[in-house]
Amino acid sequence: MPFSNAFHSPLERASETARVMGGVMPDVAFEPHSLLMDCIPTGPESDPPAAYKSFFSGVTDAEAEAGRAQMADAVNRWIRSKTSDSNELLVTHNFVIAWFVRHVLDAPDWKWMGLNTANGGLTIIRLRSGRPAQLVAYNDLGHIAPEDRTGLSVPHTV
């Protein structure tokens, strides 16, 4: 698939992944983008279930506000209706992917917390002119051998 653009978080894990991917896709030029950095996109004001409330005990209001603003800008940049065909590749982190998926599904703000992605999981969001965003695939691990899958807190089987 030809990519119009490829971006990655400037954080080390995503930068390393982009370097590896660039080695097998030499025609794709990856660029770092700060909107793809890992962040916490909401605070306790999102009224999460009791099971998630302890997570926010170490999150400051400033961190939550910065994450909320970052994800609003990221959604505006990447999860918006398109006027022409393009394929953009994003290499980013669990919380960012979870926020994008939550947004596409129009779920409550706190729902990003229950979406966990494995390292290297593929998520595909289709954007077409005049239509709402569509989640095509979430955390697809078919390209990774089961014994090499990492990043999930529970075993994942196919």
Automatic annotation (TrEMBL):
Natural source organism: Agrococcus casei LMG 22410
Keyword Hydrolase in annotation: yes
Protein name: Putative phosphoglycerate mutase
InterPro entries: His_Pase_superF_clade-1, His_PPase_superfam, Mito_Ser/Thr_phosphatase
One MF term in the entry's GO annotations: hydrolase activity
Alphabetical keyword list: Hydrolase
Presence of the UniProt keyword Hydrolase in the record: yes
